[in-house]
């Protein structure tokens, strides 16, 4: 069963193309995390928020990522970090074209 991790936090920027340029190496490193399948990066410059929607193979790997990522963001002065983990209902998600079986 796959698990979604939803993360958001306040951030002053960068956003858009500048965010993509600044965080390319971070994005590449996320691909190496145990149990990681994919991430959608989220941002809202108007409310100064950023985060992501992740898919992990197991709840345990999602939980370990939350711990590591929260500590990493704290090192950047970003706190608090809001994180929620959800089980994925694969049958319904596939009807709506969600890619959960990677």
From TrEMBL:
InterPro entries: Dimeric_a/b-barrel, YdhR. The keyword Oxidoreductase applies. It holds the Pfam family ydhR. Keywords: Monooxygenase, Oxidoreductase. One of its GO terms (molecular function) is monooxygenase activity. SUPFAM superfamilies: Dimeric alpha+beta barrel (SSF54909). NCBIfam families: PRK11118.1 (NF008333). This is Monooxygenase.
């Amino acid at each position: 069963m796959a698990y979604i991790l939803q993360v958001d936090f306040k951030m002053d920027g960068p956003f858009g193309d500048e965010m993509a340029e600044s965080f390319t190496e971070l994005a590449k490193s996320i691909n190496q995390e145990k149990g990681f399948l994919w991430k959608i990066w989220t941002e809202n410059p108007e409310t100064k928020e950023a985060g992501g929607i992740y898919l992990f193979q197991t709840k345990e790997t999602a939980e370990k990522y939350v711990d590591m990522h929260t500590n990493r963001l704290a090192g950047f002065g970003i706190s608090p970090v809001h994180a929620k983990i959800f089980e994925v209902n694969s049958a319904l998600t596939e009807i709506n074209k969600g890619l959960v079986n990677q």
